[in-house]
Specification:
With about 350 residues, the chain is α/β, with parallel strands linked by helices. The protein has twelve helices and 15 strands. The chain has two domains: about 240 residues, TIM Barrel, CATH 3.20.20.20; about 90 residues, 2-Layer Sandwich (Sulfite Reductase Hemoprotein, domain 1), CATH 3.30.413.10. Belongs to the IspG family. Pathway: Isoprenoid biosynthesis; isopentenyl diphosphate biosynthesis via DXP pathway; isopentenyl diphosphate from 1-deoxy-D-xylulose 5-phosphate: step 5/6. Its EC number is 1.17.7.3. It catalyses: (2E)-4-hydroxy-3-methylbut-2-enyl diphosphate + oxidized [flavodoxin] + H2O + 2 H(+) = 2-C-methyl-D-erythritol 2,4-cyclic diphosphate + reduced [flavodoxin].
Length: about 350
Amino acid sequence: MKKRETTRQIKVRDIAIGGQNRIVIQSMCSYKTSNTKKIIQQILDLEKAGCETVRLSVMDNDDAVAIKTIKENTNIPLVADIHFNYKLAIAAIENGIDKIRLNPGNIGSKENVEKVVTLCKEKKIPIRIGINSGSLEKDIHEKYGKPTAEGMIESAQRHVKILEDMDFYDICLSFKSSDVQLCIDVYTKASEVFDYPLHLGVTEAGSFNTSSIKSSVALGTLIERGIGDTMRVSVNGDPVSEMIIAKQILKCFNLIKNVPNLIACPTCGRTQFDIKPIVDEIEVFLQTVNKDVTVAIMGCAVNGPGEAKHADIAIAGGRNEGLLIRKGEIIERIPQDQMIERLKKEIMDF
């Protein structure tokens, strides 16, 4: 796997993005930003789950003003999502936002863009330009006939030029699509055309199951190529669930620490105890654990003991019971009804 150390580096408050072999996890709140009570609680939940920056929709002035209260009651950097109205970008900046997501070409005249850029320079606030395959400029869509990697790159070049002409380079780029292959193609091309940090994501990826597949294929392919500096896994529903997928993707490439690894056999006719309820509960439990621990839950005496010995903590099942194994050594024999609590204790004591 290539390392991501050749992109420019930007700072989002105290978080560095780009220029290092690290990918920053981002998410987005699902409530109206002016609903500060719900937003603050959601951000705190995201922080606990491993989120490092969070984006807020800024649809009106009430949303922009709410940023001040939200920032005072949370810890991670905040990103304002701005569309069309440059005044909302200015209001978000004045209320303490740490990063702006906008497309400078769709917020009005050059004079309006200059006002936003001037403030961003003064406050040291980076701008993420977000190119979505479903909302390309009319002439680009007509030129290529459909969303293409080439068209998305051309769109980004237009927006980037607006900022570069104003001597502004604290830029991050994203190229999102719900089409996995298009995501892979456009980010690969973007990594060759731009030296700005890239924010990875498959947009509108769907439910947890669908998103985990689409995001793992697209983002995993790009990460293996050394592409990407920050990422969001898009999931319909509670954004905390995005952290589960994001952290596991990064865990596969050894790009994140303190994330447990769960190994469980798929079960077959050799399985002699009811393994699924144990796997399900331990999987949920491990989402609350911040440790580099590998836990194996194996269902039979054929492959179980061998696989289990390579884990930090493991159960190798037999008939309605299992062997508890720690670092390759059998510790004790446990009845099935005690496995869950015993495993949890071993994990917490590890």
